Amino acid sequence: MPSEDSHFIGGRLCLDFANTADWHARPDPEERLKTYSDLVSWSLDAGILSAADADKLARDAKKQKTQAEKVLARAVGLREALFRVFAALASGTQAPRKDLGVLNRQLSNTMHRARLVQRNSGFKWDVTGNRGDLDWMLDVVVHSAAELLTSEDLDRIKMCADDSGCGWLFLDTSRNKSRRWCDMRECGNRAKAKRFYQRKHT
What is the pLDDT, as a whole number, of residue 199? Predict the structure, then answer.
């Protein structure tokens, strides 16, 4: 698991969102989205929200505490579904049907709120939906997942090879698809130290 200052190693927004639990491959991962404020903070750090967006959502959440709790629960449920889908693909197996169902239901809501906007170079999707909703940042995550799942990069989705249960996901963009670790400074160095210790004591 990388250090606190390198949480965005996935290469795609949806993979970074799937990595919002530490030691995700263990039976008892460490949750980082404990409150709605945590979700807002992550979305700000991920570049989904501006500072003004984050401040507005924080104010709105104080007025809609029950709704904010529901959004947090839905975010964690989406995160877990994405983790299982991408973890399955990383291991060369089919994505669980139940988790695809979770993603498809959220995608349906996302596309219902999406619109086409014109740019100088053409058109693009705007999936930010209604910025008055407490959950609009999830639309951006879901759209990222849909783009990755329909791309030619599925065979580049990997899970950190750390055998301690890191479980973080990333897109391997190396030329020969040889990347093994989420972060060479952390999990990679720990594995190297472990191999050195084992050789020394064999």
Answer: 55
pLDDT tens string 107-136: 999 999 899 999 888 898 899 878 889 999
**123, 125, 130, 135 alpha-carbon torsion, rounded to 10°:** -160
Q: Which residues contact 101 (CB under 8 A, 6 or more apart)?
A: none
8 Å CB contact between 25 and 103: no
Beta-strand pair 122-126/115-119:
antiparallel
Q: What is the DSSP letter of 156?
A: G
CB 186 within 8 A of CB 7: no
Q: Could you tell me how far CA 118 lies from the centroid of its own chain?
A: 28
Amino acid at residue number 174: S
In CATH terms, is domain 4-200 a member of 3.40.50.10790?
no
Tell me the C-alpha distance between 57 and 130, whole Å.
12
In angstroms, the CA 68 to CA 74 distance is 10
Distance CA 100, CA 25 (A): 19
Spans of the chain below 70 pLDDT: 1-6, 184, 188-202
3-state secondary structure of 38: helix
d(CA 88, CA 18): 13
Spell out the domain ranges in the chain.
4-200
Element (H, E) at 132: none
In degrees rounded to 5, what are phi and psi of residue 171? Answer: -100, 115
